[in-house]
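Revision sheet: structure tokens.
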Amino acid sequence: MRIAPIALALAGLAGAAAPAAERDPLAGRAAGKPVDCVDQARLGGPEIIDSRTLLYRDGRTIWRNDLPAACPGLRPMATLIVELYGSQLCRNDHVRAQEVGSVIPGPVCRLGSFTPYDLAAK
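Predicted:
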């Protein structure tokens, strides 16, 4: 087992001034069929949206992960600690949120399925 802390960038600070597509990264995209696992090495992110939603980027595809339950402490600007078992990130893998300035991570939470969002055909 390898535990990988993933620090998040300071995203969304210009929220009110940003165009709608920047506030909603899934705007103009079509959802595909959810899968249980994605290749972790190809993913950028995660971007924490709220206590149940994570976004990962893989080239032009954005993968949305909806956790089965709210994860305490999971909010933008938190650090996400991911327990990796191999090269894929999968449904039911464990994550923990760690608040900025805290040394103790929150409780273990489970990932949900990964839904791909690609640019909608025009």
